[in-house]
Amino acid sequence: MVYRRCLAILRNDEEAWDGVQEVFLKVAEKTSRVAKAESPTAYLYGMATHYALNRLKRERRSVNPPEGETADPRSTTEDDSIRSLFLGQLFHQVPARTRELAWFRWVDRLTWDETALAAGLSVSGVRKHLAKFTAFAQAYKEHV
Q1: Is 15 exposed, middle or buried (0-12, 13-18, 19+ CB in 10 A)?
Q2: This prediction's pTM
Q3: DSSP letter assigned to residue 107
Q4: 4-25: pLDDT as tens digits
Q5: Low-confidence residues of the chain, pLDDT below 70?
Q6: Confidence (pLDDT) at 144
Q7: What is the torsional sign of CA 117, 101, 105, 14?
Q8: Which pLDDT score, from 0 to 100, does residue 63 have?
Q9: Which CATH number is 93-144 given?
Q10: Where in the chain is the domain with CATH 1.10.10?
């Protein structure tokens, strides 16, 4: 599950395996937290998501693509590049927790209940976080 989660986000086999190692190293360091988790599976899923999103964020910060190329090689059109740039800038301005919830809900297409379970929040809490994120994103879009 951890490998599949990292692979889905990172789209790179080697980086996904690095993610598996990092997640389980953290699990070994924080065994009491995992033991206290209501759902250890959701806890691992969340840790894998955090690792992969943070890895992408670090990667994007360090990449300086040659002129005329996009930072994300998966983007194939100018619209994709602009959309990716906008989302990257937007995501850098919100807390990690909000990024995780947005990813679960809109990229992974989890239901409200699944998102809440994966994040260890109530459905109401997820809705409140994402309502704030949506309002922030709309305001951000108007100013960009």
Answers
A1: middle
A2: 0.51
A3: I
A4: 888 888 888 999 999 999 999 9
A5: 60-86, 144
A6: 64
A7: negative
A8: 52
A9: 1.10.10
A10: 93-144
The span from the CA of 136 to the CA of 144, in Å, is: 12
What is the structure's pLDDT at 32?
Answer: 78
- Whether the CB-CB separation of 72 and 81 falls below 8 Å is answered with yes
Q: What is the widest separation between alpha-carbon atoms in the chain?
A: 49
Residue type, 30: K
Residues 74-90 as b or e (16 or more Cβ within 10 Å = b): ebeeeeeeeebbeeeeb
The pLDDT, as a whole number, for residue 98 is 87
CA-closest candidate to residue 101, choices 110, 90, 88: 110
Give the whole-angstrom CA distance, residue 8 versus residue 78.
Answer: 23
Count, in order, helices (H) and strands (E) of the chain.
8, 0
